Amino acid sequence: GPTVELRQRRKPKSSENKESAKEEKISDTPIPERAPKHVLFQRFAKIFIGCLAAVTSGMMYALYLSAYHERKFWFSNRQELEREITFQGDSAIYYSYYKDMLKAPSFERGVYELTHNNKTVSLKTINAVQQMSLYPELIASVLYQATGSNEIIEPVYFYIGIVFGLQGIYVTALFVTSWLMSGTWLAGMLTVAWFIINRVDTTRIEYSIPLRENWALPYFACQIAALTGYLKSNLNTYGERFCYLLMSASTYTFMMMWEYSHYLLFLQAISLFLLDSFSLEQSEKVHEVYKIYIFSLFLGYLLQFENSALLVSPLLSLVVALMLAKCLQLNVKKGTFIAKIMKVINFYLVCTLTVTLNIIMKMFVPHKENGHMLKFLEVKFGLNMTKNFTMNWLLCQESLQAPSQDFFLRLTQSSLLPFYVLVLIICFLSMMQVIFRRINGKSLKETITLEDGRIGGRPEIIYHVIHTILLGSLAMVIEGLKYLWTPYVCMLAAFGVCSPELWMTLFKWLRLRTVHPVLLALILSMAVPTIIGLSLWKEFFPRLMTELMELQEFYDPDTVELMTWIKRQAPVAAVFAGSPQLMGAIKLCTGWMVTSLPLYNDDDLLKRNENIYQIYSKRSAEDIYKILTSYKANYLIVEDAICNEVGTMRGCRVKDLLDIANGHVVCEEGDKLTYSKYGRFCHEVKINYSPYVNYFTRVYWNRSYFVYKINTVISFQS
Q1: Gap between the Cα atoms of 656 and 647, Å rounded
Q2: Model confidence at 547, in pLDDT bands (50, 70, 90)?
Q3: Residue 384 to residues 249, 309, 379, 475, 659, Cα–Cα distance (Å)
Q4: pTM for the full model?
Q5: What is d(CA 609, CA 597) in angstroms, rounded to the nearest whole number?
Q6: Cα–Cα distance for residue pair 479/236, rounded to 1 Å
Q7: Of 60, 103, 153, 278, which one has the fewest beta carbons inside 10 Å?
Q8: At residue 576, what are phi and psi to the nearest 5 degrees?
Q9: Spatial separation of the C-alpha atoms in residues 92 and 534, rounded to whole Å
């Protein structure tokens, strides 16, 4: 009517303009006709079978992990001490605190003792819950006692059972994500198959069960699945709300479970920012995700004992910058030259604001700067040189080096890498094609059909392409990050080969005329994954069954004897010194206090580790004695495996790194060689001659360990 015409002629305020645009959009949207009953039944059957397959895949994987763990360690036939020894390094520390919570008279008392812990590291009181992210252990201990499981199952089985169950959820979430992207649950089945076959490169659950990533990544996978559904253009209101709630809950839980989670969410936020820049339709949804980030960060800050690391995280700076940039945006007609200039200015503004805000936050918010991580990155990328023991030791860790050729060979043998590269190239090129069309102001259909052959126009695909490129770039530098990227590779490759849209996009470029492209795309989206699945079944299924049938045994009698001796002979108040990995096992198996821990997020603990490692250097007995007594140590444990280490990598043995740090060997040309008049301490102390016997008395030894009591009264008699 005339009122509508008058409203269009006037120039209303921005808020009125938005409201009228929404009204027009609602009125223009056609009311969908109700589908016939047989179509509804087909949809229901498809969803039911897909959900059943997803849940079954997760349950089967969890059962497989449990059976494999039993076969590998012969767990049920072990004594409690032998079971605990299977937890190595930092895993032993996490499980020890779970035991402490179960021993506490009440939950409140247990939490208090962990937050004011002075019974783990000598001369140091730590908030173990905050510093080590012990929320999984708190939850597991509450569930164990609240469900009455203490009368049914042993604590260790309950603990590892939860972790295996979470891994089942992890696989189910990857299944659902691939299903949502491709439209067929066949993609989910292929994702799970590739994930399990390549599990050496997709997860560390087999080697270290209590790792924080094993608790956290299942929630991140759920968040990605919810985000994938949320970004879809054809999602109804109820589905959108469900995805939003699931995304909110999983984002916050993920942040609570892992101290490095906000860095991973920062990469995700960058991906969403680029999506927002390229895809104009999903801008409001992307900004709703930013609100979830802010809510999770501040709630995490409050519930993690005012964790300042979250306030100075790059994630918060980026999200705040994006919010400010949105407020400063002007309403400019899309496709014009001014709109293109504004996009560039907006991108520059966000980058500048992010860096500026992060610097300001670090200036005004008291926080512990991870200086060792920044130094490590400088040395890693060749920006600096160092002789520092800790830096060089970190550089020598296999997980922090570039991926080996074996990694790519394994992915290629399972056919995963070739299909991933193919899918990524097609999606990326299609995405760039859509972006250039939008930059040039060409109008594109809002609803993408199979005949369009435009897979790069879907917002969720753009997001996943950007995210996998970012994760892959990092994985190419640091091998440990492959456990974040390889599951993504499984999911993206499976989605691609099962998606008719991807094949249709390829056929559009090839201008296929001989066969109807839509029909061929549908055939290939079923035939290719079926052929891949059959070939994987034939080649890898017998291997998986062989692994389950093969009885292995974890045999470490020397460590069992050492722990038994400590529990029987050492005083309760004794403090032990030795390598951080061994100290973690001593804390778990005996409960005795130690001088250091295998944790690398605390500068003081890193310095302690370096000082205690001096027992394998060419230092005098007096120097070692002063170091150990400064930490109130009563016993010293020398490991023969470290003292007589024959490393595969030259210069990466502990004693080599110590010699470089102490200047006892020439590292680079021009360096000064400092000659040490002392032999290597770990060798000399075994010989039992003065002055070593004056400071240290051997009280126990076996093939692997030598235990020395640190004398309080020193005798210098020859």
Answers
A1: 10
A2: confident
A3: 42, 26, 5, 22, 20
A4: 0.90
A5: 8
A6: 40
A7: 103
A8: -105, 145
A9: 41
